[in-house]
Amino acid sequence: MSDFLSSMAASSRLRAERVKARIGMRGLRSRADSAHPTKSLVLDPSGFDLIAETKLASPSRGRIAGPSDDVNQVVVLAEGMARSGAAAISVLTEPDSFDGSIEHLEAVASRVDVPVMRKDFLVDPIQILEARANGASGVLLIARITGESKLIEMTDLALELGMFVLVEIFEEGEVDVASSVFDRMVLVGVNARDLSTLKVDRSRHAELFSKLPSHLPAVAESGITTADHAAECSRLGYRLALVGSSLVDGGSAKDLTREMIEAGR
Questions:
Q1: Is residue 153 annotated as part of the catalytic site, yes or no?
Q2: Do 35 and 145 touch, CB atoms closer than 8 A?
Q3: 94, 106, 168, 232: which is the annotated catalytic residue?
Q4: Which residue from 88, 133, 135, 226 lies 20 to 30 Å from 201 (Cα-Cα)?
Q5: Is 106 assigned a catalytic role?
């Protein structure tokens, strides 16, 4: 695991422990069970969809969005992306490198009609409950962080709660780790970013696609900055793309969202 990923996982564990101490599994389970029902992830018959991501900062770019009220910025971005046809909205909740928070998740989930996915470096089942309690209809799980047994446990819990799961991999060896959940209805994502250097190599999308299970929707992640990139991912066979930074700092998130979807179809 890269130093960056190890650092993110360690920070996530501390946050999970604080949630356990403050609320506990039983309290969060009660909140999760009484939350508004999940929204289904509906894929368009045209064959390509976008998971659009609200992101205020990143470790490779620093602050992306301009200074203003963070919660309001995230909500405005999400609403524009949803109106432009995004199948789902991804909300960063990692606070240290991405300026995210669980409050952003809750605010977006209450304002858009499409499902909202919690994106973070999740390491503990309590974070699945926390996501559901705050309105999430899906979660992203990183196979390299969770390992096989925790991935199974966390995926099972998310599906039990009616959520969708995006399982993220970075290299071919991680397909075997993630294969333990491929008999479930999950999404499989290929991240083209090298988490040691934080540089993007989009050739990974092509290299790894043939290794993915053909019966599950594949998601291209990172390095997709233009409509042409989205079209390229679609031609490779990806059913969706997860796009963040380029939507946020491109001047008009809703316009680029629409352009990418149209190009992919």
A1: no
A2: no
A3: 168
A4: 88
A5: no
55 is an active site residue = yes
Q: Which of 55, 79, 234, 245 is catalytic?
A: 55
Of 45-59, 86-100, 122-136, 161-175, the range with the lowest mean pLDDT is 45-59
pLDDT at 251: 61
Choose, from 222, 234, 245, 246, the residue flagged as catalytic.
222
Reply yes or no on whether 130 is catalytic: no
Residue 222 is among the residues annotated as catalytic for this protein: yes
Note the pLDDT of residue 197: 77
Active site residue 211: no
Of these residues, 90, 101, 191, 245, which one is catalytic? 191
Domains of the chain (ranges, CATH numbers): 3-32+47-264 (3.20.20.70)
pLDDT in tens, 106-164: 999 999 999 999 999 999 999 999 999 999 999 999 999 999 999 999 999 999 999 99
- For residue 29, is pLDDT > 80? yes
Question: Is 40 one of the catalytic residues?
Answer: no
